[in-house]
Structures are given as structure tokens and as C-alpha cells.
Automatic annotation (TrEMBL):
This is 4Fe-4S dicluster domain-containing protein. PROSITE patterns: 4FE4S_FER_2. Pfam families: CarboxypepD_reg, Fer4_11. The keyword ATP-binding does not apply. Gene3D superfamilies: 3.30.70.20, Immunoglobulins (2.60.40.10).
Amino acid sequence: MKVFIVDIAKCNGCYGCQVACKDEHVGNTWEPYSLPQPNTGQFWMRVKEKDHGQVPKVSVEYTPWLCMHCDDPKCEKAAPDAVYKREDGLVIVDPVKAKGRRDLVGACPYGAIFYNEELDVAQKCTGCAHLVDEGKTPHCVDLCATGGLRFGDEEDFADEIARAETFVPEEGCRPRVYYLNLPHLFLAGDVWDPADNEIVEGAAVTLKTADGSTLETSTDDFGDFYFHRIDPGIYDLKIEAGGFKPVERLGIELTESLNLGDFPLERA
């Protein structure tokens, strides 16, 4: 069974995969798997872009997004006559039987199915099944410049799949596109000494979660601290440094990545 592996840490947002998909499918018919993709309005492979944090502590997350080629696809349940799953795991919307099946667009919880108004047919990523049949890789994978997007047999990626994540698992679709190094959220700030107008390096910063677990870090040589890859929730923050009074901020509600700003420390 085939899988896609997407390593977010290696994705630099070049959009090469998105362009590759257009290059392969716009104006090209790959029957029995697909009719031409429109030049505009559809992205069978697209790169989602999300900003995290606030100035000056900001990061950008790039997430390649395609059909998840689920083991239990809801599109197939919605139209078993028009959608099928190949033995290698790729999910295909039949370009003939999906004529007029506009309902398929809403059946996908990932928003990966589009409707071609001109051809009157539901369409999506095929995993470049026509290339896979020839022993080649999907075009998006082939043109990924950083190695952040890979494709192959499930058993060859077993170690990575064991530590990977999938999107919308609560839908029960069991997607076969696995993501490594998803950033989740971050909490950040900076610590300084207003008496000397200098940053405080090496201050101990502790973050306590609602369940009582703690995370620890220290300020860097710019006085900054970061807690990366944390989940939404309520947190208590404490900052301690030699010669200064401790500072606490309680009940921080984290729903998006957050720059807490600066923390001036008072001399003990």
C-alpha cells in the first residue's frame, strides 16, 4: 500500500509541488483516472500557509495539502459507483461515473474534491496514478526540491509513520498522508533588566499545564524564550533569574501561537 510522507520541517514554501500538479494535469487527460484540471479554481495539491505569533516573534507554517487517499474514504461511501480505492491505496474519482456528482465536493472532510463546471465532473488528486502505473513517483514528489514530500510503500516508512500525525483523525477516514514535524503552537516572550536596560540571558522559564506537567526552557543570548510544539490550553508561566524577583503570569489561554511580549525583572 502506498503512502505520502510530508515533512513540514523540510518544506520551505516554494510551492513547487503545487506548480508541479498544475503542470501535470492542466490541459492533460489521464484516463481512466482523470480529465484535465482547470487552469484556475482548483488545486489538487495546494500549499496552505499559516502565520504563527505576533511581531516580532512570527513564524510561517507551510502545509502541502492533497487528497488524503483514506483507507475509509467518505467520498466512496457517498458515491460507491463513482469512487473506488485501488489495491495500492490510491483513491480514484472515476472521471466518467462522477459526471454530475456535485455532491462529492461536500463529502470530503478535507476539502480535496473540486467541481469542474466546464466538464461537469467532480475531480481531485489521483496520486498521479498514471505515473505510478509506470513505476514512477507522483509529479509533486518528483519536483519537491527539499525532500519534504515523499511517496512509496508503507513498510518502507514504518518508523516515520509511527511518529507522524494525520489531519482530522476524528472523522475516522484513516488517511494515508502522514505529516512529520507539525509545529502545533508556540508561546514566546523576552526578559530584560530595566535598571541596566539590558536583556537577561539564561533566565529559567517554566511553563505549567492544567494537568500539572511542566515544560522548561531558558532565555537565549537575546533574552528571548520559546516553548515550541505545544497544544491549545491553559498555562501558568514563571520566570526566575539570579538576583531578580520571580515573575509569574497565570491562566494564559492559548488558542493560537502567542508572543507574550517583554517581562521586566525587578532586582531582588
